[in-house]
Amino acid sequence: MNQVTLGFLVVQMKHENTYLTEVAKRSSSYSIDCVRFEPTSIDPVTLLINGEKFDVETNSWKEAMFPIPKYIYDRCFFHRKEARQKSKPIVDWLKKYRETSFLGIGLPDKWAIYQALNTDSTINSYLPHTVMLKHPDEMMKHLKKHSSCILKPRTGSRGAGIIAVFYDSKIIKIHYHHGRDKKTKQFNTIKDFILWCEKLIEQRPYLLQPLLPLHDTSGYPFDIRLFVQKNHQGNWELLGKGIRRGYSGSFLSNLFSGGDSLSYERFSLDLTDRQRILLEDELKTIVDHLPPLLERKFHHLFELGIDIGYAQDGSVWILDINSKPGRKTIIETNPKLADRLYEAPLAYCQYLISKSQVKGVNLNG
Question: Is residue 260 within 8 Å of residue 244, measured between CB atoms?
């Protein structure tokens, strides 16, 4: 097999340095060269890139000039507005460029995903009822009936911008996270709250969902992270499961908001045999059905992090789906999977190479 190039697309060159370096260290056995570059480093005239190429002899990255790689692994995260404005249009262009094939195209925003999945009879029962928040009256109607709700930005990750709202008589409290710290704000009148809410939804679109009782027996919020990925044959596999648990008094369990990683096996010991069997059956249904459904609804994918809520009554909920998942929870709780996770992008890239050679087609469609 001829040597081909796999490009790691990042907003900042050193982002995920450890992960991408570990992948690149294993590239020679797959006859793949690894480069990494920022979207803004592409010369619009020559289409040459000023980036870095991995040197397998010294196990280090070195500055290099190279053409746009045929295969691209998109690891761009647009947490800052400036990065989104500058880099996202270029990434969108690359995904349409006929000379490139992305390992995975990615997913649209949370509202688009919800609308698409809600039409599927197998998956929609796992989706919390979700509405696009257009006016504070919608939230007040919900609060007067249920006394609480959760607001999620239409776009975003890592728990950023998520707000829990509690209504007690005429007092309304909101809780949100700033990094690991939980913040609280109280509104003594509904009028003040509505004014705040109007400003909130003017700034960015929000989704409204019920606040589900997703706490363990000790009162800690938690969720189950399912990590699924395509293997060297292009088939979906569940690589691992892990538990992300927040701290007492929090309502978020993701790691960026102060959560910790726990093993799924340890968590399952606290379940009865019946609970364990029922939960495993639900998780298998989601893993078997959700990834191919997303590809039918949107574009081809390479990997997914699926966050599952397990409520006190045994109900199972799909909380979030990430097409650019982190690996910390899975590696910390399943360290034996590390090598497999590092080799996976190379193995799947090799599969795409063989597929394109047989069919002679571009894989971005």
Answer: yes
